[in-house]
Design a protein that fits this description.
Layout: H1 2-15, H2 21-28, E1 31-34, E2 41-43, E3 51-54, E4 60-65, E5 70-75, E6 85-90, E7 95-97, E8 109-115, E9 129-142, E10 145-152, E11 155-160, H3 194-217
Antiparallel strand pairs: 1-4, 1-7, 2-3, 4-5, 5-6, 8-9, 9-10, 10-11
Helix pairs in contact: 1-3
Length: 226
């Protein structure tokens, strides 16, 4: 009986092979979407009144949960001095990609200079000008006024946009022309190949024969004649 059970387990392993590790990794892979147009807003909630800033053009958000109207996303990560923020983007304004970008987020710090209004009353004016460095997330607008959404010392807020943010654009989401498209690799098939079918059938026949032999060997021996 033990040998029979072992044969049945072997047959099950041949007929139902374990899932491919590559397929499992593909299911668990992170998803990203790119702001392929200017003016893609990052919202604190699923409504237009909660807009915080515009995602830098050609940079990405990590997709947390895709929705019909809004998609839950993450921008930046928790690598000092940066901090991840979660919110929403309009689904139809995002371009979803099937790869993990090498440069998903714009990592930029800006320095803002604060000057004391008027002339210093005493001393040499050493503190008439102060500088503060912030992590830049994106640009926002209030009417015609432009602001930067920033973070410093764990606090998020806005500062006046007194400078231009110049940065390199991503191009990895742009698909090459059809003439430049490499031949796609054949996807791993979940159905067994012809060779696998032949091997499984042969193994099945052999298992049946062995099982019959095992069961026959278990019959009682005939009584000896006296």
């Amino acid at each position: 009986m033990k040998r029979l059970m072992a044969l049945l387990l072997l047959a099950g392993a041949l007929l139902f092979p374990p899932a491919s590790p590559r397929a499992a990794r593909a299911e668990e892979a992170e998803r990203y979407a790119v702001a392929a147009q200017e003016g893609v807003w990052f919202y604190a909630a699923e409504n237009e009144e909660s807009g915080l800033f515009q995602i830098p053009y050609t940079y990405y958000v990590r997709v947390l949960k895709e929705g019909t109207l809004y998609t839950a996303v993450q921008y930046l990560d928790n690598v000092a001095p940066y901090r991840a923020v979660t919110g929403f983007c309009k689904t139809d304004e995002l371009t979803f990609v099937d790869f993990i970008p090498e440069r998903p987020y714009l990592r930029r710090e800006i320095t803002v200079v604060y000057r004391v209004a008027g002339e210093a009353l005493m001393g040499g004016g050493a503190f008439d000008k102060l500088e503060k460095t912030f992590v830049y997330y994106g640009t926002s607008y209030s009417g015609t006024a432009r602001f930067f959404y920033v973070m410093a010392d764990g606090i998020f807020d806005y500062v006046p946009a007194t400078q231009e943010i110049v940065y390199d654009l991503n191009t990895d989401y742009l698909k090459p022309s059809s003439a430049e498209d490499p031949a796609p690799e054949p996807a791993p098939s979940s159905s067994p190949s012809v060779i696998q079918v032949i091997v499984i059938c042969g193994a099945g026949v052999a298992l049946i024969a062995i099982a019959a032999f095992v069961l026959r060997g278990k019959r009682l021996a005939p009584a000896e004649e006296f």
